[in-house]
Design brief:
- The strands form nine sheets. A four-stranded antiparallel beta sheet has the order 4-11-8-9, with helices on one face. Strands 16-23-20-21 form a four-stranded antiparallel beta sheet, covered by helices on one side. A four-stranded mixed beta sheet has the order 17-19-22-18, with no helix packed on it.
- It is an alpha+beta fold and about 425 residues long.
- The protein contains ten helices and 24 strands.
- Helices cover about 35% and strands about 20% of the residues.
- The chain starts with 6 loop residues before the first strand and ends with a helix.
- The longest helix is centred in the middle third of the chain and has 46 residues.
Length: about 425
């Protein structure tokens, strides 16, 4: 990939030079605001940070978001194929995109109709680069970040670059193909991560309920357990641990504090905050051998073995082992297992904020290996295996980050003219034709 032969200096903060034959134009010369209402028969569209303009149906199908649109859509704005649309409150984060659909968007969005014969998809790529989102940020107004708004009257005064029409087409063609290729790679790597996570869950389930050696199995009367090793015993959880509720309304300096958003789902890993922190209501004290079990939305599997002392939010049950014959880390794996999580989740109450209660959890019978040594063997085995799986996940995540970074840099360099892709597109066409 080579640069253009000649460049010229431009008076823009976000880009210092562009190819000699490119221009700099105010946005008002490229786009006008489209305000057409009364088309509530058209499909709803959404403007996202990740993907730009998509249908609301696609958004709802692939996320936990709910339809927040009004029943009366007569004031919603029409979007034509080829228009750009952006979220006034999130343009500075990249919530802008070219629309491949005809539809309507919230009145809070801005719809941009191309004024001239331009390739609007080129500006989809340009406006989503870190360079231009910073320009959007600087031209947005509001007291706090969550209140920033980029009004059309401010957007139209912002400046942008204008390559010749033919080069806009070539750039879009090149980036469409390259981004699809990179996104396919990212998707493949994400699938690998999901496979590894599922394998880890299955491994925990298999070992905490079946051990690491060959055992003769016995059936159980517990509906959620088919069988357990015959040498193991079934005990109500409340005979092994007790709920501790030592609560207070203050946090000491540099004291470990664990909130729900600091706990990673399904792993037991957490980050903690020390010193001055903001929290609501009271906090609970925990010790290094306690197990913290989240009773809110238990399907998220937020179960922690902290190995330190500190305080946590009230939505975490603090479970303290009372039997010297039970290894607390083994208990952590048991309570983190998908089978136990599914059992607890089946007992929740409350539609919007489902919770479980200790009364149900404590009465459940759980399988316990007959010796603490056997429990420790299981813990050591799982620690070793999970460490290996987590390393593979981290390596894959690093690869994804590198590809994402490369994609962002590539797009920025191409749309700002640092790289000339005309020959690359022509070469691809020649290979295709031949």
């Amino acid at each position: 990939m080579k640069p253009y032969k000649e460049y010229k200096t431009v008076d823009l903060e976000w880009v210092k030079e562009i190819p000699t034959h490119w221009d700099v134009m105010p946005n008002i010369s490229l786009f006008e605001e489209r305000i057409e209402r009364g088309h509530d028969e058209l499909q709803m569209l959404a403007v996202t940070i990740k993907n730009g303009v998509i249908t609301q149906q696609e958004l709802l199908e692939n996320s936990s978001k709910k339809d927040s649109s009004n029943d009366d859509k007569s004031k919603y704005k029409r979007v034509n194929v080829g228009d750009l649309a952006y979220n006034k409150m999130r343009m500075w984060q990249g919530a802008v995109g070219h629309s491949a659909y005809e539809g309507i968007v919230s009145p809070a969005y801005i719809v941009l109709k191309p004024r001239e014969d331009i390739v609007s998809k080129y500006y989809h790529y340009l406006y989503r680069t870190p360079l231009y989102t910073e320009v959007s940020y600087q031209n947005s107004y509001g007291i706090h970040k969550d209140q920033l708004s980029l009004r059309y009257k401010d957007f139209k005064r912002m400046y942008t670059i204008l390559p010749p029409l033919r080069e806009q087409q070539v750039i879009v063609e090149y980036l469409d193909n390259k981004v699809e290729e990179l996104d396919t790679l990212i998707s493949t790597e994400n699938e690998k991560i999901e496979v590894l996570k599922e394998y880890k869950k299955a491994l925990i389930d298999q070992v905490v309920f079946g051990g690491i050696e060959s055992y003769e199995k016995q059936k159980t009367d517990e509906i959620w357990l088919k069988s357990i090793p015959s040498e193991w015993s079934l005990c109500p959880l409340k005979t092994i641990v007790r709920e501790v509720n030592n609560s207070r309304s203050d946090i000491k300096e540099n004291e470990v504090y664990i909130a729900l958003d600091q706990i990673e789902s399904g792993t037991g890993r957490f980050s903690y905050v020390g010193g001055e922190v903001e929290f609501d209501s009271k906090v609970k004290e925990f010790k290094d051998t306690d197990i913290l079990f989240c009773k809110l939305r238990p399907y998220l599997a937020k179960v922690v073995f902290p190995k330190c002392e500190g305080v946590c939010v009230g939505e975490l049950l603090v479970l303290r082992p009372i039997s010297k014959d039970v290894d607390p880390e083994f208990l952590h794996y048991l309570l983190l297992s998908p089978s136990f999580i599914n059992l607890v989740n089946s007992s929740t109450y409350g539609a919007k904020m489902p919770r479980a209660n200790w009364g149900f959890i404590g009465n459940q019978k759980v399988p316990i290996p007959d010796t603490k040594e056997e429990q420790k063997k299981i813990v050591d085995y799982l620690n070793e295996k999970i460490e290996g799986i987590d390393k593979l996940i981290e390596q894959t995540q690093l690869k994804i980050s590198e590809v994402e970074s490369y994609k962002e840099t590539l797009i920025t360099n191409v749309v700002t003219g640092k790289i000339d892709v005309k020959n690359l597109v022509n070469d691809r066409r020649e290979v295709y034709v031949n």
